[in-house]
Design brief:
There is one protein chain. The chain has about 180 residues and is of the alpha/beta class. It contains 6 helices and 6 strands.
Length: about 180
């Protein structure tokens, strides 16, 4: 597990919960407006090991309600399910932030009962997805699959969009909403 950042407490990232936010490195997008660009490659020094993070959580039992797992794109981590199971085993609720590009991984986490909340970023209208995510030829079919999965999952979720003046029009926002 490559932990690239930690916000020790947040009242904003996990609706209704006092939580911490752990940032996992690596992303399959190259959004030109990314606010976590230092996490994209998934290389470099780890902020902390998984064990150090779990020790941090152990010291906050009773103080924090949940853990928000974000990135980068957390579903790229091969051991994500085990990591979440360990966090949940400590009594924490888990919120996952995802870009929706790995519906198979998302489904496996949902089917295993590991997620309490999911926030999925919808980057733009279908036509502008490749430009917005910085991946030429990107096919947003996987995004549609993840949206459908979340809608049918029974897991609390939200869909959100970071609006960037240079990339989004009113028409794009309407298309996203539809």
């Amino acid at each position: 597990m490559h932990i690239g950042g930690l916000q020790k407490m947040t009242l904003l990232d996990y609706p209704g919960k006092v939580a911490c936010t752990v940032f996992l490195s690596g992303c399959n997008y190259r959004c030109p407006f990314c606010h976590n660009a230092e996490l994209l490659e998934g290389k470099g020094d780890h902020l902390m090991t998984e064990e150090e993070f779990l020790t941090f959580l152990n010291k906050r039992v009773g103080l924090l309600d949940g853990v928000c797992i974000t990135g980068g794109e957390p579903t790229l981590q091969p051991d994500l399910a085990d990591f979440i199971a360990r966090v949940r085993g400590m009594g924490y609720a888990v919120k996952l932030d995802t870009n929706g590009t790995r519906p198979d991984r998302l489904a496996a986490l949902i089917d295993a009962g590991l997620l309490d909340y999911v926030a999925m970023d919808i980057k733009n209208s279908r036509e502008k997805y490749p430009l917005t995510v910085g991946v030429a030829g990107f096919d947003p079919a996987v995004i549609d699959e993840s949206i459908a999965l979340l809608r049918e999952s029974g897991v609390a979720h939200e869909f959100r969009t970071t609006v960037v003046r240079e990339l989004h029009t009113v028409e794009d926002i309407v298309a996203i909403a539809q």
